[in-house]
C-alpha cells in the first residue's frame, strides 16, 4: 500500500482485455498465438542499419519537436501515394508511435464532455484515450453481415450525428475490413452534414489486399476536418522503434504539437533516422511482407471455410474476425487455449459489435498457422 490515491479518471478505465488474455497464454510454452497485433517480421535491414549508423555518428540529441525536417519532407512525399498533400512545415507531426498521435489528438482537440463517435469493433486504445481526455465515447457498432463496413445508417442509428468527432480505422483492427471510395464518400457526406471532425487511423494502409487504400482525407471537403494517423509499426515491422505521425490542418497539428512539446519533446531520434531510410529505400520489403500476409490470409480463410467457421472476407491489416463456434467467444477462446494451446482474442475486447467473434492475427509464420489450424480442427471435432 502507498499514500497514493489513483485518479478517478484512471481508476474508471478497465485494464486492456487483450493483455489479460496474453497473460493466460504466457503461462504455458506450447502455445501458438494468433493473438498478437504485431508483425512477426523484423524491420528491413537498411532501416536498422540507418539506426545503427545514426548512433555511430553520435546523433543522440533531441530533434525539432515536430520531427526532423528531412523526415517530415519524406512523409509529405510518401502520403502523396494516397492523394494526400501536407506541408512538412506545419501539417505533419512525428510522434512516438501512432499511439502518441492518437492520444495527442484526443487531448488537444476534445473538450470535456465532447461526444466522440468510435467505430467499433475498434482498436483498444481509442475509448480509454477519449476517457483520459475527459470526453465521452459514443460506440458506433458495425455488423458482421455488412462485412463490418461503416454506413450512414450505422452512424445515424448510434447517435453519431450528435458527436463532435468521429474516429475510424480502415483497414481495420480487429476485423480486417477495408472501405472503398464509394463507402467512404457516404461517410464523408455524413461527417460534413453533421459537422464532425474525423480522426482516421490509417496505420494499416499498406496492408490492403484488394483494390487500393483510400484515405477519407483525400475526399472533397474532408481535408480541413480530418487528421490522419500513420506509422512505421505495421508496414515496416518497426513496432519497437516507436515511430508514427499525424497529418492534418495546421491548427489541429499545432495544437497536438503544443501537448507533444511539453510531454514528449521529440520522437526517438534513432527511430527517425531508421524511418527516413524505410521510406526512401524499403518499398520492396513492404511489398514482400504484404504478399506473405496475403498468402496467409487466404490460407486461414480457406481453412475456416473447410471447417465451417463463419468468417467475413477481410481484405486488410493482418486480422480475421470469425464467428466463435457456439457463440460464446470468451468460453471458446479459453477452451481452445486450454485444450490445444491456440490463442485467439475474444472479440468482446474490441467493444460493441465484437461479441461472439474472435480476433485471429495472421502475423505469424505459415508453419505456426498450419499447426494452429490443425489444432483448431481437432478441437472442433472433439467438441
Ligand atoms: N492503431 C491501430 C489500429 C493499431 O492496431 C496499432 C497497434 N496495434 C496502433 C494504432 C499503434 O501503433 P504504434 O505502434 O504506431 O503506436
Structure report:
Residues 30-375 form the Aminotransferase class I/classII large domain. InterPro entries: Aminotransferase_I/II_large (IPR004839), AspAT/PAT-like (IPR050596), NHTrfase_class1_PyrdxlP-BS (IPR004838), PyrdxlP-dep_Trfase (IPR015424), PyrdxlP-dep_Trfase_major (IPR015421), PyrdxlP-dep_Trfase_small (IPR015422). It is an enzyme of class 2 (transferase). It comes from Halomarina rubra. The protein is of the alpha/beta class. The chain folds into two domains: 8-43 and 284-382, Aspartate Aminotransferase, domain 1, CATH 3.90.1150; 45-281, Aspartate Aminotransferase, domain 2, CATH 3.40.640. It has helices at 8-11, 17-26, 45-56, 69-79, 97-109, 126-132, 152-157, 181-193, 250-263, 269-281, 283-307, 329-340, 366-382; strands at 32-33, 92-95, 115-120, 136-141, 165-169, 197-201, 226-231, 244-247, 319-320, 342-343, 345-346, 358-361. The strands form three sheets. It has a seven-stranded mixed β-sheet with strand order 2-8-7-6-5-3-4, with helices on both faces. Helix 4 (69-79) packs parallel to helix 10, helix 5 crosses helix 9 (250-263) and helix 11 (283-307) runs parallel beside helix 13. The protein is globular and about 60 Å long. 49% of the residues are buried. 4'-deoxy-4'-aminopyridoxal-5'-phosphate is lined by residues 37, 97-99, 123, 169, 173, 201, 203, 231, 233, 239, 244.
Helix content: 40-55%
Classify the fold: give the CATH topology of the largest domain.
Aspartate Aminotransferase, domain 2
Instruction: Please tell me the total number of domains.
Output: 2
Q: Find the structural class using helix and strand composition.
A: alpha/beta
What order do the helices and strands follow? HHEHHEHEHEHEHEEEHHHEHEEEH
Shape: globular
The largest sheet has its strands arranged as 2-8-7-6-5-3-4
CATH architecture tag of the largest domain? 3-Layer(aba) Sandwich
Enzyme class: transferase
EC number: 2.6.1.-
InterPro entries: Aminotransferase_I/II_large (IPR004839), AspAT/PAT-like (IPR050596), NHTrfase_class1_PyrdxlP-BS (IPR004838), PyrdxlP-dep_Trfase (IPR015424), PyrdxlP-dep_Trfase_major (IPR015421), PyrdxlP-dep_Trfase_small (IPR015422)
Keywords: Aminotransferase, Pyridoxal phosphate, Transferase
